[in-house]
Amino acid sequence: MPPRKQVESLEHMCFMVMAGTLHRLAVELEEEPESCQVSAEELSSTVASLPAVINENMITKVIETIHQTVSRTRRTIGMRTCLEVLLQPHVQRLDLSGLFFKMRLPVAINMTIRNVVREQVGSMKNLMILNMVSKCSDEILCIVSQKCPNITEVIVSISDLVTDEGLKALALGCPKLEKLGISKCWEVTTDGIAYALQYGKNLQKLQCDQLGAVMINRFKKSNTTFKLTHFEQTQTLFEPQEEEIAWVGGACPCLESASLFVDDESLALVPQLGDIRVLEIETSAILGNGFVKAITNLGVSLLTLQLNCDEVNQEKIVLLGKCCPCLTTLHLTTATVEGDELLINPGQLFSSLTALHLQVWKETVISNECVEFFLMWCHKLESVVLKAELEFLTDQYLKRILAANPLTEAKRIIIASEKHVPLTLESVYRLMASCPSLENLGISSWDITEEEFFKIRDDVRKNNYNFMIS
């Protein structure tokens, strides 16, 4: 059966009480300052007396509290005061990403957030990490470049107010910068990216979908070397010459991962980047000799493969298992899995796999042989996601799978379809019994009534299982 929920830690309980209290006082200060028990200055002084690590945790917990309030009432009263109080000079890690990922806020509120950060961040001399996904601006980056010399990580992706000006200031003023995320910053040009590469001497990871084109076009004729551990080119098709990809491998000797939008021919060149451990590939081509050469040469170094393509041949799946025996994560998204021969796993293929995400789209039926190829033999699976037409996947079929491989390590299982998965309440309880580590089970497409869904939920609550159904 699934594990029981642990008793909520006193630390977490204290944080949430403190966050709720701070948010309540902030709301009172903005709505009825005359009747509030404390002033903004007193509240800020209290927070300032806390150790930095508690202050930083309070920021994320208060954002969580604000999210709950916004979801329930649509009101953002108190947000400004919370940020003014929490953004103290001793903060080293400022993570405001929850303001983007957890809630959609009006333009005026986003402007307020930026204004508060701009006013407060200049005093954060010890700031090392800044995460302002979708909320950042050039003004903020310029202040960070002037006042935060120890910063090592800045994530400002999806921020339309970040331009080349902000990047140049950051590259010049923050010599310790190691990680920079600027994906989907549409106002950033290739000039800004090149500037960040040229002056970010300690940059190890630059999240930017034009990285490959900028590096080759701007630096290939120079003797520049980079400390980058990640390489990507996903905005446009990456079609490098062999000498260009070889140059990238030589100029970036520390590369460990790559994200590429390529054709099959260019896939053959990927191993020249080095011993890539994590590879994300998107291609509209049918996988052919280029893919074969890539996985053959990467071999045991490849640990994670995320592949999005129009068609996968069954023989290529078998070859992948033979060439890359150390693969632990496989995400395969495709329109169809083709092949004339039966897909059979002799027992040793993908034996190291812990995460399998198999999605066959366009309402294409996936074969039972493909499901059995993985689920019968991958005994270390911790995460299983199957999204396709799965009419054959009945209670009895799943029972036979679990008899061969009980999935005892599985923590997450999601089986879904655009139409219907003929699994019933019987399979829910069978998986709960077979998978002692199971924490998340996706059953939205199953043959389960609303009444049965509530019954499962009530059983989970009654037995205090650390288990979520969705």
Automatic annotation (TrEMBL):
Protein name as it appears in the record: F-box/LRR-repeat protein 4-like 1
GO cellular component: SCF ubiquitin ligase complex
SMART domains, per the entry: LRR_CC
Superkingdom of origin: Eukaryota
GO biological process: SCF-dependent proteasomal ubiquitin-dependent protein catabolic process
Record organism: Homarus americanus (American lobster)
Stored InterPro entries: Leu-rich_rpt_Cys-con_subtyp
